[in-house]
Amino acid sequence: MRSTQVLGLLFAVSAFFLGSWILGGVDYETSASAGAGAFFGLMISAIPCIVISAILLVPSSIQLISKKKRSAYGFNNTKWQLLLLVNLVISFGYVCIITFIIFTYIKVKFGLM
After folding, report:
1. Which end of the chain is more exposed for a tag (fewer CB within 10 A), N or C?
2. Separation between Cα atoms, residue 14 and residue 70, nearest integer Å
3. Which domain holds residue 51?
């Protein structure tokens, strides 16, 4: 469980840095082909990292909410609890984004928008 939490955080951080690096030079003067290249770069690098991070973090973070599970997996000291807290915040963000996407899809699909 510790390795899952660490890997999930590493994928989230790498997605942030990859996205920042790819989109760093894109502004309103960027040509359409360069913008399409940046979008393609995001699609093959940053977005898969975000998906992998969400797959790793959300279930394991929900499982580690229980004090019994935390003690069973060795999340007793401050370092591991801080890692869990950061990952819980990231997991909450993922859940909010997924809920928003599903809600928007339903509204558009049924013509409520």
Report:
1. C
2. 26
3. 2-109
Q: Identify the sign of the CA torsion 35, 11, 44, 54.
A: negative
Using the Cα atoms of residue 30, residue 50, residue 89 and residue 21 in order, give the sign of their dihedral.
negative
Angle between helices 32-41 and 2-23 (to 10 degrees): 170
The total domain count for the chain is 1
Distance of CA 39 to the CA centre of its chain: 18
DSSP state of 77: S
State pLDDT tens for residues 78-98. 999 999 999 999 999 999 999
Q: Which position has the token pair 């229980």?
A: 66
Please tell me whether residue 3 adopts helix, strand or coil conformation: helix
Summarize the chain as % helix, strand, coil (round to 5): 80, 0, 20
The pLDDT of 11-33, averaged and rounded, is 88
Cα 64 to its chain centre, rounded Å, is 18
C-alpha 21 chain-centroid distance: 17
